[in-house]
Predict the 3D structure of the following.
Amino acid sequence: MIKLVELRKSFEDKEVLKGINTTFEAGKTNLIIGQSGSGKTVLMKCIVGLFEPTSGHIYYHGRDFMAMKKKERMLLRREMGMIFQNAALFDSLSVLENVMFPLDMFSEESYKRRRRRAEFCLDRVNLSEAGDKYPGEISGGMQKRVAIARAIALNPKYLFCDEPNSGLDPKTSLVIDELIHSITQEFGTTTIINTHDMNSVMGIGEHILYIYGGHREWEGTKDEVMTAENERLNSFIFASDLFRKVKEING
Ligand SMILES: Nc1ncnc2c1ncn2[C@@H]1O[C@H](COP(=O)(O)OP(=O)(O)O)[C@@H](O)[C@H]1O
Ligand SMILES: [Mg+2]
């Protein structure tokens, strides 16, 4: 569980996050939605410690992130898996070596066990056959799956995905969404996903935080999103193809 209390972030005199309060529960896919520039990436970077918030609090299972010393933060980082917008794989390493990378960095297990763990993770994303391939030789969707395998290699308690479906076709996006969702349930991770993909919202939006201009505009579930009376949320949803189709079907 991750709890945010009055989280603010400014860059010089520009306030990007204007006091965010929310709770992301464990075992759930928590989605942060909002139009481009609304502050999703900045928020995620604050939560993982890549940006220092200007004020407010972040609690990891009750542990105050802002009050942690450098060493405590480093230990906490090992409990985080991250998937960023571009899969960000190492081109010169094979798929298996990419997944082993965090294990080589942080795990004290033997080579054999690290390798076995990496193979398990690759198998989990249905890529057990691709270990010897290089990132340049596989599709964008497969690269994303490798990134997911790498992100779960260290058995993270917290999983962060910034626009995991960017650049993927709708069908492949669905596979990635389902994979992140099932991993979240299986391992009970606290998963936070930044997205502006309405298919993801309606597919795996167990908890949705809609941010608008750096503040929490609306919060709810995918079942509540369609009947929400928030005007800004509605126009955000209206702008998506999926919503238009549903409206057409329902007359
Ligand atoms: N390092 C930075 N310095 C100054 N402004 C930034 C920085 N990073 C992001 N911003 C600004 O913060 C706002 C929110 O950006 P971002 O979180 O990337 O939006 P989103 O991910 O929702 O598209 C934007 O106006 C952006 O220009
Ligand atoms: Mg972003």
